[in-house]
Structure prediction request, 65 residues.
Amino acid sequence: MEQWNAGLMEYRGKQEWFTRQVPQKLKALREHALIESAISSNRIEGVEVDQKRIKMLGRSNTNGC
Prediction:
C-alpha cells in the first residue's frame, strides 16, 4: 500500500509539473478532444453537422475554461 501511495504521489507531481509547463498544448489537446467527442456523438446519433461548425462551437465553449 505504501508503494502504491508513493507511486501515486510521484505521478501527481509529474502531472502538476506538466500542467504548469505546457498550458497551451493542454488547451489545444482539450479542444481537440471536445471536437472529436462531438463528432463521434453526432455520428452515433445519425446527425450530420459540418465539422467547421462543430469546431466553431467547440472553441466558443472552451473560452471560459
Observations:
- The chain is about 85% helix and 0% strand.
